[in-house]
Amino acid sequence: MRDVFFEKGWCRFPDDPVLLEWTRHVLPAARSALESPENAEWIRCGGTWNVGVNALPNDAQGKVGDGPELGGDAIGFIRGSLGMPPFDLDRAQVSVCYPGYPQPMDTETPSAYQFRLKKDAAHVDGLRREGPSGHRFLREFHGFVLGIPLVSASADAAPLVVWEGSHEIMREGFKRLFDGMTPDQWGNMDITKPYQAMRRQVMESCKRVAIPASPGQSYIVHRLALHGMAPWAEQATAGPDGRMIAYFRPDFGVPSDWLFAP
Ligand SMILES: [Fe+2]
After folding, report:
1. What is the pLDDT of residues 11-28, one digit of tens each?
2. CATH level 3 topology of 2-257
3. Interior angle at CA 247, CA 243 and CA 151, nearest 5
4. Residue 217, SS3?
């Protein structure tokens, strides 16, 4: 699994009873968090996507209420193989998609909408858009992206997509870009243009794969890998919860490791 992960920039874990037990326990809390007024600000794309940032009220071990800690194969792999210092879990994002995703929004340009529709809004986490000009800066040093489906949906219901091997292209690009700078200076650089060029290079040279998964399964995406969310296919199906996935993205801990660690 380790070799596959570092070669392709992602891996999927098969049915895991420990993880299934965790998902069963947190699902009611995820549902009520998404319905709460505090989360309303995260609804996007004409109501077809609830971004649900930090929606899940879990603690640093992934426990919600008196439920189980987040355990199982994937979290064991992360703690054992990614070279991260011991870390606390962040509050999970609960990303929910509904039929028709993506609908255009007033707040996005026509070209941004086309990028969402045709190119899955492909991105590397932590490169934030800022100000009216929407220029991008490196702001967050995530250690990984762990995706945990909380409900069943068909494989074409807005799955996560990843460009295989893109993490090494991104790594080389950022190494060139930040050459001669210390990690505390990286965030000062406007990376908008070079980042666009890096994404183009990835799309021309890497294979795009969709990663559908069911409750009890999970997947890990390398922190530098280009990934996104496919549109909801016309024939896709899901229950009343839509396509609901919990994502954990704790900080790496050491900013330089974000770029240089395997
Ligand atoms: Fe992401």
Report:
1. 999 999 999 999 999 999
2. Jelly Rolls (2.60.120)
3. 30
4. strand
